[in-house]
Helix-turn-helix protein (Umezawaea tangerina), 289 residues
Amino acid sequence: MTHQLNPVAQQRKLRAELRRAREHAGLTQKEVADLLEWSASKIIRIETGAVGIGITDLKALLGQYKVTDAKKTNELLDMARSSKKSSWWDKYKNHLKPDFIQFLGFQESASLVRQFQFLFIPGLLQTREYAEAMFDSYETDPEVTQSRVEVRMQRQHLLTRENGPRFSFVLDESTLRRQIGGATVMREQLLHLKEVSRYPSVDIHVLPFSIGVRPGMENSFSVLEFLPDDYENTDYVVQIEQATRDILLENEPQTASQYVEYFVTLEGLSIAGDQFDATIDRLIAELPT
């Protein structure tokens, strides 16, 4: 991918590089903390992304890890500086959960996004009216609703961005039948799905009721895949949606592999192409006029 990594992705790449440098130096987190007279928890927080890292602390770590190559040092310092820059979503961050902000950054830097959704139309595929109706159903603060809708609309630039991610969506049939905002809103939403399904970077599949229940359908989930140039040894991020708090998993290759397998299985059981269009047309015809 040729686009520049955003600040969230830069921080993720930087901490992966720091873990590798520490391991290459043969040091444990506690040994580094003792050498620098820091707490062990500070090293842990830096490496897990719980806190950012300043230039002074970064130089101290690189000294302990014996990173002396000027080009490599400057590259890591540039990552640290870039991780402090602003992103388009910063003006909405008071109304967004920290894990979701991380997810936004990761999604923008992914090469492939796989998403299974069994409750709602995915946010990347929603019309403004559908998104407003959905947030209005459980959010009482109009300002929060408006902010979240705007974020949802701005995220959709990824679907058509040059050198952006590829997207593969598997939608449970219930997402198409559950009426959000009434018949008029649903009609426009279903037509929008047909339109987006023709984008070069987007594949949309529908999982019909007839397939029953299969492994992986317990929760909606996303699997983000990264090119090796972006993340040398950390290839996936998994987001599992839950009622109270979504789970964001990094550096868990076995879990990622399991969810990729779930997705591929569900995708293989789904309908797409002309069958997808026919399903959308039939559902539109069933809507009350």
